[in-house]
Design goal:
- The protein is α+β, with helices and mostly antiparallel strands and about 500 residues long.
- The protein has a single domain, classed as Orthogonal Bundle (Cytochrome p450).
- A five-stranded mixed sheet has the order 1-2-10-7-3, sandwiched between helices.
- Helix 19 packs across helix 22.
- The longest helix is centred in the N-terminal third of the chain and has 21 residues.
- The protein is globular and about 80 Å long.
- Bound molecules: protoporphyrin IX containing FE.
- Pfam families: p450.
Length: about 500
């Protein structure tokens, strides 16, 4: 057989020509010089070397990414704050503050700070890859204000209380499942059940119909998408410039998500429900979230576009499911771990409420509200910086000039453990939230620093949805069952990848 020319061509591997032609040593030297310059620029960028923090973190993002990747950045950040004080440089372009005085400055209604680049990783795009503006990710103040106004009535407490009947069938389904556990005396993986419950509840509120996650489990495979999405945001949000090469790139996104069609199904549902709401007159029963937004558009088309209706509805699923489930798990776990608090709450709830629970009645119970606040304090579902960027020209924060383009923020997990605001911060103490004659000022301060839902301009739009869900569900459970942790709660653990998701909440239910 005749040799092909290709085979006869001398290979660099056999001749060793590569080593002789490429000046490896000079290239290595150039690389080291460039890297050193990069580190120097990072460290001294616009005077940021004055902000205290570890040397390595000031020259490279690698330690920060490693800390986030290990799902324990709050532990590392706490240590850094203990060592360096109220303001710490976590990475060349990331600064963490933990001070009461900065809450208003960074997040207040009239703040000049805008959302950091981190949030752009969470933006929705349509099928053509065009950005669908949403309040969560937009940096444009006017767009943000318009979006908030356009959906304000749908997120208001008054509307949500009217939507309670939409969630009732979901709650009944949950109780049937828990009754079965109680009758059989089996241990319930309550963390998973709660996740499914919250998913069904948020679908019911948003679209007027749920996906029966409680009985079918994750049949739409939304959890996988949401897990990838939050871990991706946590890790690559530290280097947001990468996003355009990763999930923002449609080919890469398709490769990662594979043939997962759940987002498309969600989008279809949002589109169908929006169209159905347009074609029927305002209904007599409780209106769901999409219907309320459609009515807003009917009255004044300029207030909200169709894409924005879809964006809001889809945002409810991604922002409102894991977060609320996490808060509920924390509230239940902490209660069951603390028998005195559990007994106090059982007494309050059982003496004052009956099934079916209504928020109007349940929200009057001070100890129930206190237990929810204490759980949100000790285990805020969002456990990383609520990042912001200063306006053009920068801003002075905690005595340091922070130039534009730099991410600065407060991590709820740090501020909520500040002993000056919350004395004995590592102790579960719901009573700290109860009003007394002498603690008015302290309470004001604590409420200002409870930033589990954020604060001010970008405060969580869905806080009332979660509060109603949590209040009603916890009261319902305590009226119907006696609860106790299986194995003393030994399997309960959590990881912090932006969302502080737990696993192993195993509970034994007994009918009362
Ligand atoms: C316990 C449950 C929840 C927690 C702890 C939580 C936490 C947060 C936090 C901390 C922010 C502010 C982020 C920032 O300032 O940088 C936020 C914003 C937001 N949340 Fe929630 N959330 C929860 C439930 C929900 C629900 C149920 C929904 C919707 C149904 C929702 C929708 C939103 C939206 C749309 C924003 C953006 C608001 C804006 O930027 O103006 N969240 N949430």
């Amino acid at each position: 057989m005749a040799d092909s020319g290709v085979l006869r061509t001398p290979s660099v591997l056999t001749t060793g020509k590569l080593q002789r032609d490429i000046p490896v040593l000079p290239m290595f030297v150039v690389f080291c010089v460039l890297l050193t310059c990069h580190f120097i620029v990072n460290r001294y960028h616009k005077g940021l070397h004055k902000v205290p923090g570890p040397f390595l973190n000031s020259i490279s993002t690698a330690p920060r990414i490693w800390s986030v990747y290990r799902s324990r950045s709050h532990v590392d950040d706490m240590k850094l704050h203990r060592k360096y004080g109220k303001i710490v440089r976590l990475a060349p372009r990331t600064i963490s503050v933990s001070s009461t005085a900065t809450v208003e400055h960074l997040y207040g209604i009239s703040t000049k700070f805008v959302k950091s680049e981190f949030f752009k990783l969470g933006a929705f795009t349509d099928e053509k890859g065009e950005y669908i503006p949403d309040p969560f990710s937009t940096q444009d103040r006017h767009v943000h204000s318009r979006l908030k106004r356009g959906a304000a009535n749908a997120y208001s407490l008054t509307s949500l209380v009217k939507m309670e009947p939409l969630v009732s069938p979901v709650t009944e389904r949950l109780l049937r499942i828990l009754d079965r556990h109680a009758e059989a005396g089996t241990v319930c993986d309550f963390g998973d059940v709660l996740k499914n419950y919250v998913m069904d509840a948020i679908f019911a509120i948003s679209f007027g119909q749920d996906m029966n996650y409680l009985e079918k489990g994750d049949h739409l495979r939304l959890y996988r998408v949401l897990d990838i999405f939050t871990s991706y945001m946590a890790i690559f949000g530290q280097i947001p410039w990468c996003h355009k090469f990763l999930l923002k790139n449609p080919r890469f996104a398709e490769w990662v998500a594979g043939n997962n069609t759940s987002q498309l199904q969600m989008m279809d549902l949002a589109i169908q429900e929006t169209e159905a709401s347009f074609s029927k007159p305002p209904s007599e029963g409780p209106e769901n979230f999409v219907q309320l937004l459609v009515n807003n558009r009917r009255k004044s088309p300029a207030t909200i576009s169709i894409d924005e209706i879809h964006g809001n509805a889809l945002g409810n699923i991604s922002a409102g499911s894991d977060t609320t489930a996490t808060a509920l798990r924390a509230a239940i776990y902490l209660l069951l771990k603390n028998p005195t608090a559990y007994q106090t709450l059982c007494k309050e709830v059982r003496d004052n409420l009956q099934l079916p629970v209504s928020f109007k009645e349940a929200s009057k119970l001070p100890y129930l509200t206190a237990c929810i606040k204490e759980a949100l304090r000790m285990h805020p579902p969002v456990g990383m910086l609520l990042g912001r960027q200063p306006p053009k020209g920068g801003e002075v924060v905690a005595g340091f000039h922070i130039p534009e383009g730099i991410e600065i923020g407060i991590n709820p997990m740090i501020l909520h453990y500040d002993a000056e605001v919350f004395p004995g911060p590592y102790t579960y103490n719901p009573a700290r939230w109860l009003k007394t004659e002498s603690n008015q000022e302290q309470l004001k301060q604590m409420n200002r620093c409870l930033i589990a839902f954020g604060h001010g301009r970008h405060i969580c739009s869905g806080q009332h949805i979660s509060t109603v869900e949590m209040t009603n569900l916890i009261a319902t459970l305590l009226i119907r069952y006696d609860l106790k942790l299986a194995n003393g709660g030994r399997n309960y653990t959590f990881k912090n990848l932006w969302f502080m998701t737990q696993s192993g909440l195993e509970v034994i239910f007994c009918m009362r």
